[in-house]
Amino acid sequence: MPPHKPYAFVTYRSQESAQKAHFHLNGGKLMCGENGVTLYLSFIDSGSVFAPLPDGLLLVEDFVSAEEEVQLMAAIDWSSSNDEVIAQKALKHRRVKHFGFEFRYDNNNVDKDEPLPAGLPDVCLPLLERCIKDGYIDIMPDQLTVNQYQSGQGIPPHVDTHSAFEDTLLSLSLGARTVMEFRHPDGRVVPVVLPGRSLLVMKGESRYLWTHGITPRKFDMVPVCDLKSSTHSGHDLETNGSLTLSKRGTRTSFTFRKIRPEPCRCAFPSACDSQGPPAPLPPSPPALPSCPSDAARLEQEFVHQVYDAIAYHFSSTRHSPWPRVCHFLSTLTPGSVLVDVGCGNGKYLGVNPEITAVGCDRSSALVQICADRGFNAFVSDALSVPLRTASCDACISIAVIHHLSTQERRLAAVRELVRLLKPGGRALIYVWAFEQEHNKQKSKYLKDHNGKQNLIKNTSEGSQEPCEYPSKCSDGACTPTDYMPVTDGKLSVHTNRTAFNTQDLLVPWHLKEGKRQEEKLETSPAPVFHRFYHVFQQGELEQLCAQVSQVKVLRSYHDQGNWCVILLKEELH
Ligand SMILES: O=C(O)CCC(=O)C(=O)O
Ligand SMILES: [Fe+2]
């Protein structure tokens, strides 16, 4: 519910009639006096609003006294360090402070070898001992994240990284009441009212499989009885009276966790960054598609599924925004709306704080990573972005269009970017270049990873140093794969960090499951995934763009192994 907009709750007798109403009315125009307004409907499945708590979740009310609450709040000195300045920049939505170990929002993990000088504040110890005595935990936590939310702020839905923390998470709520939503991968949503001074214990399924998050808003819908006693969800509308709005205030939470020394072996591998999805069999190389449905299938298997499978590792190699992309973003006037189509882990979404940046990506795992980092992102195919025509001042498409497997689909992707632009708006497109040498200069991709020396350096230091040209780098995994020539029209597998000899190919990604390189060498070989690429020849991107009406190429250039264009959408005459 956007602030200051009128809204109403309407109850339908059956789900079918609710769906019908939604179908016919949502987005419809209404006359309101002289003015036309648009009516939007959201569908709330009341069945799930009052569902039982997720398995493994426990809410302990009045866990701390009002005095303890004051002491705990007083123990956090928000002015003492500049770390919240950094965190705030990344998180936007709340203040945060870490004790014991820093939780890093860039890779959603902790550096287990680098404890913070300050351990957990002493004032927490009696409470934690009480948690052990009461059987909520059986081992003392060694990491604390304190979050402070003003009214209107929240935390995106996430699962606390399995490989970082042990099973049980404790979240102590201080100050104002809020509602935390738990979401199951099957779509069930369970809102849980968290009163001040309560302790939420997340174990098992509720910790490993369900996401938890707090929607940023100023009011929550809570059962009336929750305002009086502070009982949690599980009420039934019919038998327990009605819902009411509860105004949010400032809430401070203390989340206690235990660092996990070994990889996670939970029973939920689909949500587990230690276990990941099962490694695919080495592909019997597919052929170039000959019809649209083949193309979609090829991309499904050799692009979408791969990004979902490698999302965590991929994201951990994507730190540094490319300078010329940043420059483009810095030229946008304050208040501009930018959409990053194929935003990956969102590394460009926070570059220019003066603009409104929204990202979308085909990989829900990458979108989740964006959300965890506090960015606006949604799952979408680059060929059909659910945003209004002419709604954006700028679009970027960085290292995306080369993943489309036919000329028609690459053209459709450019058309879609142009459709989103307002007249006068600009789009920046980067695609991987066939020519990795330009003006007699080898691209960094070839240079950085060609030499044996570099291989040795990376390996011996266990370096996870991000490559500056990451679309081609599987993070120092310098073992070349066997080159497979094109046979029977099949796609060849590229040898990493060598020149290309064909335009359509599969590029291997050596998955490292959050492990250090030297550890990895001693264990089984990293699973290899293959991504489809169409690498562009000089002039090809411009030719593609020339087929799109209402747009002109303002600039085109080669940037370290990529062909790049800046497009301008022209006014319609
Ligand atoms: O504010 C809360 O209770 C939850 C915080 C949280 O989920 C986190 O920091 O991972
Ligand atoms: Fe969390």
TrEMBL record:
Keywords: Methyltransferase, RNA-binding, Transferase, Zinc. InterPro entries: AlkB-like (IPR027450), AlkB-like_sf (IPR037151), AlkB_tRNA_MeTrf/Diox (IPR051422), Methyltransf_11 (IPR013216), Nucleotide-bd_a/b_plait_sf (IPR012677), Oxoglu/Fe-dep_dioxygenase_dom (IPR005123), RBD_domain_sf (IPR035979), SAM-dependent_MTases_sf (IPR029063). GO terms for cellular component: cytoplasm; nucleus. The keyword Phosphoprotein does not apply. Residues 140-260 form the Fe2OG dioxygenase domain. It comes from the Eukaryota. One of its GO terms (molecular function) is S-adenosylmethionine-dependent methyltransferase activity. Gene3D superfamilies: 3.30.70.330, Alpha-ketoglutarate-dependent dioxygenase AlkB-like, Vaccinia Virus protein VP39. Pfam families: 2OG-FeII_Oxy_2, Methyltransf_11. GO terms for biological process: tRNA methylation; tRNA wobble uridine modification. Its cofactor is Fe(2+). This is Fe2OG dioxygenase domain-containing protein. It comes from Gouania willdenowi.
